[in-house]
């Protein structure tokens, strides 16, 4: 019969309308099941997959819960345990970047010798295509994807060219955004460090044993020959290794006053970076007339 | 003379002299043909050997190519034809024609009308002239554009270097913005004899490529006029223009005009390293980034001979089939939108799309710009809980949603009245016009690359290729619904059978140097056949990076399908081709 198809279709829409209407009359509508209440009408929405319909998110009061892997603009990691930037200015991220939006300035010491850290690091967020290749290929876990997507500004330049101060975040921030990946990564890093330490220890122990054997033999030799005892090359090497190990142990304990100074300087630099980032954020807000 | 391929093709003795040599020894049949004999060979292949589908036609500029010389022909430009048989399935025959810079090539449009848009693109980007083409104008660029940008000696304005990674993005130590320097200032040169002030866009070409069915009505004194539909109009699904000649409401001729979103993706692709192109493919058909990723990965894997682990194959199928459902739901919604059923069907159709995009985001980090696949697998394994959610979606929610969509729309009398018999074009004509995908299946031909030339692991799944007989708007709507249902079937099997294990095989990283050679890799994207034609000279960048995009080539049929129908129908006919301008203009 003519018109039955129309009626059938209208039946589908009517059912939807009734379902929504019914749900709206509940004190807490079903569509907010699974969401996080922040008060003042603010919510973080996470719609369960088995929930009927699709709910409208009342942005900006309500926001969606972003999955861990959400990628937006990269951020640089400040390792708060070691009190240093993880970035070593190796430049791999800048090489793999498809739109070539990364610009790294390598730091150098007072003699002009390049160092393994960057003095500045720029990302042009207007060019960045959020592909996350920089993250994938970074060998030092120094660059990660930020989740902050509210970046609207009035001008592209200089607002959207982020410098190092704006890009740097402490490790805890990253750990909060990417919990699973952070866990895995930390475990892997620990293991790697452990292995490295063990290898070095073994090496040192072996060298020491060799040196001891040699010196014993030498002592015997000298005793028999009656010549003055001299340190062999192997011995010297072993001693140097020992000293290096000692230094490392000290550094790990946070020992030596020199190291303290360096750490304090780094902390101060981090504070300075943070302050600059905040200033910049304020300036940006003022510019955008908020 | 290469004997073997000639025999393979079964070319009779009188055409053997047309074959100048083989392109490569270990690929599918690929022969170099003398330019003046190309039409004979094409005709013979089409009529006697069933190669009825001209899939890909493109050009490669071999100036400065470091690889080996093939077939003793050293001319600069090479036109490539990839032919397939829709009846038999199976692999392709590739024909190569080499010509010097200023030479002309006979146009294939008389044998394969589908060469129309592709030859225009080659003319536009490479400057190769095609003898006998009915409408050889620029297509993606405008008439005042100087030069042919895909030629190797044409350099992109204001970019520091020809290949990435740049030695320095900022040679002067600070940021310089291209928009401060570009266009209309120092950079603008015009072709010789071309004056911007006196230039006027010609409209006389409207009825050129299709003969108008102009009936003589002596008792009515009517006159046909030219009407622009678009480019700024929501019904064109982006920035796209249909230049029509109408008499009253009836369309006499229709010519698609495009290029408003053109960014010369292929030129960018030749400066990028192999891997860098992966996120760029997301931006082609931005509704289906997973399929685009896969098509590119497939072509490069074929070229560099990279193995894909089992689990990654399953993940690819799962992502691609979810993508197909997303695309078809979107397409159905917007066909209805174009018919005047504003928003309601569209919103009903894309409800589950959100769920799928959320899944994509959870696994890859982005809803639409997924950038998920790599050469030799996929980049991230599934997060916790993903498999359960996807299984629920595939087993419970999607079948229910598709059934509901079916109930909502299929028997609707208005949809049937508007859709039945509108936009008809016989399936033979569609194939001749190189149309692929749901359009030809809605015309009754069960041609689907997943079955005809299975890639990935599609030969393991139990699914059908739905076909419908009428080749009109209604069938093009309904075929998409049926295909989405088949995709659900594949999803259920893939999610059930997926093994544990590796997801990314070895050496496909950013230092990949693909071995010298050429490859045409294709797959059944939701919109039709998506192919990547790649040529390599063994360097870190592709020598040639060409995309055979279904949206673009399906537009061959837009004019012929629209002629004789009303203006309002043309909107739906375009909607039922299902184009995305990111892919049309590239």
Overview of the molecule:
The complex is a heterodimer of chains A (290) and B (586). With 290 residues, chain A is α+β, with helices and mostly antiparallel strands. Chain A folds into three domains: 13-64, no CATH class; 74-177, Alpha-Beta Plaits (2-Layer Sandwich), CATH 3.30.70; 179-251. Chain A has helices spanning 4-24, 92-96, 133-137, 164-167, 171-177, 179-225, 233-253, 257-287, and strands at 36-39, 42-45, 62-64, 74-79, 84-85, 102-108, 114-124, 143-145, 161-162, 168-170. Chain A is elongated, with a radius of gyration of 30 Å. Chain B is α+β, with helices and mostly antiparallel strands and 586 residues long. Chain B folds into two domains: 3-131, 2-Layer Sandwich (Beta Polymerase, domain 2), CATH 3.30.460.80; 265-585, Cytochrome-c3 Hydrogenase, chain B. Chain B has a five-stranded mixed beta sheet, covered by helices on one side. In chain B, strands 8-11-12 form a three-stranded antiparallel beta sheet. Chain B has a three-stranded antiparallel beta sheet with strand order 15-16-17. In chain B, helix 9 runs antiparallel to helix 11 (351-364) and helix 9 packs antiparallel against helix 17 (473-497). The longest helix of chain B has 29 residues, at 310-338. The radius of gyration of chain B is 24 Å and the shape is globular. The two termini of chain B are 38 Å apart. Residues 1-7 of chain B have low confidence and may be disordered. The chains are: A alpha+beta (290), B alpha+beta (586). At the A-B interface, helix 1, helix 2 and helix 3 of A face helix 7, helix 11, helix 12 and helix 13 of B.
Chain-wise SSE layout:
The complex is a heterodimer of chains A (290) and B (586).
Chain A: H1 4-24, E1 36-39, E2 42-45, E3 62-64, E4 74-79, E5 84-85, H2 92-96, E6 102-108, E7 114-124, H3 133-137, E8 143-145, E9 161-162, H4 164-167, E10 168-170, H5 171-177, H6 179-225, H7 233-253, H8 257-287
Parallel strand pairs in A: 2-3, 4-10
Antiparallel strand pairs in A: 1-2, 4-5, 4-8, 6-7, 7-9
Helix pairs in contact in A: 5-6, 6-7
Chain B: H1 3-9, H2 13-16, E1 19-22, E2 30-33, H3 38-49, E3 53-61, E4 77-84, E5 93-99, E6 104-106, H4 115-126, E7 129-131, H5 178-181, E8 225-229, E9 232-233, E10 238-239, E11 241-247, E12 250-257, H6 265-271, H7 277-282, H8 289-304, H9 310-338, H10 344-349, H11 351-364, E13 373-374, E14 377-378, H12 386-409, H13 413-419, H14 427-432, H15 438-441, H16 449-452, H17 473-497, E15 517-525, E16 528-536, E17 544-548, H18 550-554, H19 558-562, H20 567-577, H21 581-585
């Amino acid at each position: 019969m003519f018109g039955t198809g129309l009626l059938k279709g209208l039946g589908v829409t009517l059912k939807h309308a009734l379902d929504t209407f019914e749900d709206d009359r509940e004190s807490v509508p079903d569509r907010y099941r699974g969401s996080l209440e922040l008060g003042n009408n603010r919510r973080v929405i996470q719609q369960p997959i088995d929930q009927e319909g699709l709910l409208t998110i009342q942005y900006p009061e309500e926001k969606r819960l972003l999955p861990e892997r959400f990628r937006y603009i990269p951020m640089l990691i400040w390792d708060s345990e070691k009190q240093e930037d993880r970035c070593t200015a190796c430049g791999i991220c800048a090489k793999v970047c498809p739109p070539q939006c990364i610009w790294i300035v390598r730091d150098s010491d007072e003699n002009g010798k390049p160092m393994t850290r960057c003095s500045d690091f720029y990302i042009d967020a207007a060019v960045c295509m959020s592909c996350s290749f920089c993250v994938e290929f970074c060998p030092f876990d120094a660059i990660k994807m930020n989740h902050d997507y509210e970046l609207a500004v009035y001008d592209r330049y200089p607002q959207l060219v982020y410098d190092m101060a704006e890009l740097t975040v402490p490790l805890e921030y990253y750990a909060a955004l990417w919990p699973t990946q952070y866990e895995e990564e930390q475990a892997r890093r620990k293991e790697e460090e452990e292995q490295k330490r063990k290898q070095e220890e073994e090496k040192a122990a072996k060298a020491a044993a060799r040196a001891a054997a040699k010196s014993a033999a030498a002592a015997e030799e000298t005793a028999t020959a009656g010549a003055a005892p001299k340190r062999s090359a192997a011995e010297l090497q072993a001693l140097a290794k020992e000293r290096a190990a000692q230094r490392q142990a000290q550094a790990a304990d946070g020992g030596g006053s020199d190291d303290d100074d360096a750490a304090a300087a780094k902390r101060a630099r981090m504070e300075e970076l943070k302050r600059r980032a905040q200033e910049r954020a304020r300036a940006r807000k003022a510019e955008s007339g908020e | 003379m290469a004997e073997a391929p000639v025999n393979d093709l079964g070319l009779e003795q009188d055409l053997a002299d047309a074959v100048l040599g083989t392109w490569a020894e270990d690929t599918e049949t690929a022969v170099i043909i003398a330019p003046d004999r190309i039409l004979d060979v094409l005709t013979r292949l089409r009529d006697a050997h069933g190669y009825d589908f001209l899939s890909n036609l493109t050009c490669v500029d071999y100036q400065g190519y470091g690889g080996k010389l093939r077939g003793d022909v050293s001319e600069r430009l090479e036109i490539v034809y990839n032919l397939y048989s829709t009846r038999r399935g199976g692999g392709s025959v590739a024909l190569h024609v080499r010509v010097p810079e200023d030479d002309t090539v006979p146009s294939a449009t008389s044998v394969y009308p589908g060469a129309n848009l592709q030859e225009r693109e080659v003319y536009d980007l490479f400057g190769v002239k095609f003898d006998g083409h009915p409408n050889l104008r620029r297509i993606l660029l405008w008439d005042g554009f100087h030069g042919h940008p895909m030629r190797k000696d044409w350099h992109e304005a204001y970019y520091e270097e020809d290949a990435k990674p740049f030695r320095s993005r900022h040679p002067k130590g600070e940021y310089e913005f291209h928009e401060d320097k570009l266009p209309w200032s120092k950079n603008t040169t015009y072709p010789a004899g071309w004056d911007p002030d006196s230039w006027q866009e010609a409209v006389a070409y409207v009825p050129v490529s299709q003969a108008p069915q102009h009936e003589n009505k002596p008792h009515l004194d009517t006159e046909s006029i030219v009407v622009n539909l678009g480019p700024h109009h929501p019904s064109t699904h982006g920035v796209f223009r249909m230049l029509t000649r109408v008499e009253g409401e009836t369309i006499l001729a229709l010519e698609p005009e495009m290029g408003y979103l053109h960014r010369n993706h292929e030129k960018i692709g030749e400066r990028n390293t192999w891997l860098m192109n992966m996120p760029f493919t997301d931006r082609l058909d931005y509704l289906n980034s997973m399929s685009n990723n896969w098509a590119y990965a497939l072509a490069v894997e074929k070229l560099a001979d990279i193995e894909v682990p089992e689990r990654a194959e399953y993940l690819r199928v799962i992502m691609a089939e979810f993508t197909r459902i997303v695309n078809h739901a979107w397409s159905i919604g917007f066909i209805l939108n174009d018919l005047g059923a504003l928003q309601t069907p569209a919103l009903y159709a894309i409800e589950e799309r959100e769920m799928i995009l959320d899944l994509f985001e959870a696994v890859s980090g982005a809803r639409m710009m997924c950038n998920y696949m790599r050469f030799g697998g996929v980049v991230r394994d599934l997060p916790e809980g993903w498999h359960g959610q996807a299984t629920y979606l595939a087993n419970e929610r999607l079948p229910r949603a598709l059934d509901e969509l079916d109930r909502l729309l299929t028997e609707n009398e208005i949809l049937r009245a508007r859709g039945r018999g509108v936009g008809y074009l016989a399936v033979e004509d569609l194939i001749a016009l190189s149309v692929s995908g749901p359009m030809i299946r809605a015309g009754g031909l069960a041609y689907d690359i997943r079955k005809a030339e299975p890639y990935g692991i599609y030969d393991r799944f139990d699914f059908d290729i739905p076909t419908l007989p009428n080749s009109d708007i209604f069938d093009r709507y309904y075929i998409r619904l049926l295909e989405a249902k088949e995709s659900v079937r594949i999803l259920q099997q893939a999610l059930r059978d997926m093994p544990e294990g590796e997801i990314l095989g070895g050496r496909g990283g950013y230092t990949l140097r693909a071995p010298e050679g050429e490859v045409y890799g294709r797959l059944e994207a939701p919109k039709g056949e998506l192919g990547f034609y790649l040529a390599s000279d063994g360097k870190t960048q592709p020598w040639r990076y060409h995309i055979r995009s279904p949206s673009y080539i399906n537009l061959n049929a837009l004019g012929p399908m629209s002629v004789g129908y009303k203006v309002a129908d043309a909107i739906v006919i375009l909607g039922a081709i299902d184009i995305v301008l990111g892919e049309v203009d590239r």
